[in-house]
Amino acid sequence: MPWSNQGGSKKPNDNSPWGQQGPWGSGSGGGGGAPPDLEELLRRSQDSLRQILPSGFGGRGVAILTLLTLLAWLASGFYTVGPNEVGLNMIFGKYRGKTQAGLNYNLPAPVGSIIKLAVTDRNAIDIGFREQPTRRTGGPQLPEAPEESLMLTGDENIADVKFRVFWQIDPAKPEDYAFNVANPPATVKAVAESAMREIVGQSQIQKILTADRKLIEPASQQLMQRVLDDYHSGVLVLQVLLLSVDPPASVIAAFRDVTAAQQDLQRLGNEAEAYANRVVPEARGASARIVQEAEAYREQIVAEALGQAARFDQIYDQYKKAPAVTRQRLYIETMERVLGGAEKVIVDESGSGGAGVLPYLPLPGFSSSTTGGRK
User: Fold this and answer.
1) pLDDT tens-place string over residues 170-208
2) Residue 208 belongs to what domain range?
3) Does one domain contain both 234 and 154?
């Protein structure tokens, strides 16, 4: 050391700014030296500073220089926040508040610091595959990640589920995103995979492959958001998009056959239902028509029978009053009805030798033919 006495020599070191003694007194290795003179130390420091600074730059100049340095340090605390960002003010590493887009101020380093978060940027996480550009075509290729995509269903089958999660930092709680979770993207990915496994584990393989695909997306999104809110992660889940839901590659052909058969079954069922909807109303209409015709026939027969019975009663009442006349009238009416349309020959029994045959002039027929000739 420049101020220590080596080899017992008492010769002062001319190169030492402290002269013959060290900064804390005697340079000897043993104790017992006098305590340092602070005034002497300050005086020597000022002398060294005067040698460095220009001549005539006294204590006032040092104060002005110090003040300018302090102002420049304070002025460096101004910062700008982008329109898609939120700034988090830190004082000695402790969160003190957030700032919106524009010009803002916080104490500069090392006292203060700023964390800027892009709260409006949409982030995407792929589960079950990795999207990478190919070398030849430049398009995306989807390398498999079976450790993420293979999931057990509720009926003890295996489904290969590939999906994508869109998320962003919650603009209302960016401090949770910055301080509560060490690795937010990894946390979102783990929560997304866990939520999807829970939803798939409560469903059957056939429903997942067909009808329930549109129900899985909102259910998993709600479950993810609830878990992330419990973590106070400051993450907002925007959308869960199912890209593919298939059986494992080794049995995918058999599952496709089963799916095709189920679709044929559903199609045939729909066709049968359509045929039933067409035939059943026709049969019901025909049945109602037959019933109505039978009821009308019954009413007609009953009415005719009642009419004939009433007519018979009336005739019988007249017969009791004049039986001979009534019998004669009934006989004549019957003969008229029976012989009215037949050819007739009148024989007079009082005649002899064939003279009893009387000529008969068919006036009704003659009248009809005459009328027809006039037309």
Assistant:
1) 988 899 998 998 899 999 999 999 999 999 998 888 788
2) 123-250
3) yes
DSSP three-state, residue 216: helix
- Condensed to tens digits (0 to 9), the pLDDT of residues 234-291 reads 999 999 998 888 887 777 777 778 778 888 998 999 999 999 999 999 999 999 999 9
**Has residue 270 been placed in a domain?**
no
Same domain, 128 and 229: yes
- Helix/strand/coil (H, E, C) string of 293-362? HHHHHHHHHHHHHHHHHHHHHHHHHHHHHCHHHHHHHHHHHHHHHHHCCCCCCEECCCCCCCCCEECCCC
Give the C-alpha distances (Å, rounded to integers) separating 285 from 18, 277, 288, 298, 304: 125, 13, 5, 20, 28
Is there a domain that residue 130 lies in? yes
